Amino acid sequence: MEHLSSTKPSLETGLIRPADPLPVQTRLNRLTLVDWLYLGALFAGAIFALMHYRQHMDYYEQAILLGAVPVIGVLGWYWKPVRALVALLALLSCAAIFLYHGELARAEQVFFLKYFLSSQSAILWMSTLFLLATVFYWGGLLARSTVAARLGSWLCWAAVLLGFVGMMVRWYESYLIGADIGHIPISNLYEVFVLFCLLTALFYLYYEMHYQTRALGAFVLLVISSAVGFLMWYAVAREAQQIQPLVAPLQSWWMKIHVPANFIGYAGFSLAAMVAVAALLKRYGIWADRLPALVVLDDLMYKSIAVGFAFFTLATILGALWAADAWGGYWSWDPKETWALIVWLNYAAWLHMRLIKGLRGVLAAWWALIGLLVTLFAFLGVNMFLSGLHSYGQL
């Protein structure tokens, strides 16, 4: 892969660690014809979507679509696997749309829809593949098997692909039910848990390639598998996989940017917590020779929290703007808002102590791990035990 040409070995473990990033101008000069064709294909796809589905999109949604193109394009330039992911996602999603022929009933009549490409089938495959990836990652760690760990990585990529296919097809299915029902699939716990699994896995897969180690997959996939377990229980117990119309407070374009930003933050915090578990085990001498160097774990924990905090801050600001639009005030000390502030203050303090006081080691790891419990309560606990303006999100 391209980044290997600019890496250097760590003296502590022999792991390959990234060297200083190349200047932006140097990276631009290294772009090839394939890179520009990839970006052109993205713009062509966005234009196609506007031509065929513009009547279902307001100006804000059109702007979001066009703005996503350069973001995904640049991501694909500097993280090559994203290209294959985007291409396969587009291919499978378009195949599903073609097979539906505008009739939702075909989900139970067409073989490939029923068993592979309908939203429920694809998300079920995603769940299965994440669980298998967890098994193989742990097998790779415990048996020191590079083959098992590599299989875990491939299964994780496959799960991400099918999860995104499920989300895209679910979006299309919602419009097949009714134009007034159609909405982006990030409106209830079932949908956002799928989103959480996908974002956390993508975060991890990037760092897996960045640091050239699969030893952390066993830990990170545990939190994803836990989310999958909740997802399966929620689908069975509440039939949450059924597409429902949006409740009134969610009928806003703010949801389309607030929720993804929020869950990028959750993904970063979750990744940091699972890296913290690995760091604590290494410090206490458990699998110490199988895990990356402490300096690598510490660096990854810091970067995950920093990225997560940036997006969580953005989500909080967007949420305040949404509240002003929907309820007439930026802040109301609703339980969900209050606990979001607690989460924000927790990670702001962690970053402050890291940057000003040099926070590292056992305290930093335990703090990151406990921070995930605080975040979990802010996300799920508030929905379960408290009520307020966000009561439409209760379990």
Your description of this structure?
GO terms for molecular function: heme binding. It is a multi-pass membrane protein. It is found in: Membrane. It comes from Mycoavidus cysteinexigens. The chain has 395 residues and is mainly α. The chain folds into 2 domains: 101-243; 253-395, Four Helix Bundle (Hemerythrin (Met), subunit A) (Up-down Bundle). Helices cover 73% and strands 2% of the residues. The protein is built from 13 helices and 2 strands, in the order ββααααααααααααα. The protein has a two-stranded antiparallel sheet. The longest helix has 34 residues, at 294-327. Residues 1-19 have low confidence and may be disordered.
How are the strands ordered across the major sheet?
Answer: 1-2
Question: H/E series, N to C?
Answer: EEHHHHHHHHHHHHH
User: Radius of gyration in whole Å, from Cα?
Assistant: 21 Å
Strand content: under 5%
Largest sheet: 2 strands, antiparallel
Low-confidence stretches: 1-19
Count of separate structural domains: 2
Task: Bin the helical content.
Answer: over 70%
Question: In angstroms, what separates the terminal alpha carbons?
Answer: 44 Å
Shape designation: globular
Give the strand tally: 2
| Tally of helical runs | 13
Whole-number average pLDDT? 88
Question: Class by helix and strand content?
Answer: mainly alpha
Oligomer: single chain
GO molecular function, one term: heme binding
Keywords: Cytochrome c-type biogenesis, Membrane, Transmembrane, Transmembrane helix
Main location: membrane
Subcellular location: Membrane
